[in-house]
Amino acid sequence: MLIQDELGKIGLQAKIDTYDFATMLGTLTKDPGGWDITTLFFDSSLTSPAQMPALTLGTLNGSSSPELDGLMTEFNASTTPEQAKAVIDKLQAFTWKQLSVITLSQSKLYAAYTPRLKGYGDFYRVFWNSWLAA
Asked: Is-above-0.70 flag for pTM?
């Protein structure tokens, strides 16, 4: 495993346990001190901090704090793009200070659309109540 090999190169012996997603969440929740690193995939096209695991899984990734809770409350109370941007700047600074998440790799999702697609509400890749017109 790549992560195990890379950790070994810097002298850290790692034991890798592989779980399905539900088991992993249960394991992380039951024994928060029983693990050091976990890997998760999350979509980089998320449109709100409330959708970002790095900010919302605080009890599972060690980032839970009154400061983060306050910033999320402040973001959710934003009523203008300018207010939201100011809070996102604070959230960005918080995540760099806390460093509860490190990006190991990045990929880009592509999507194609057609004028025949009707009922689509521009929420990335959510197509319920959508249809193709004849």
From this structure: no
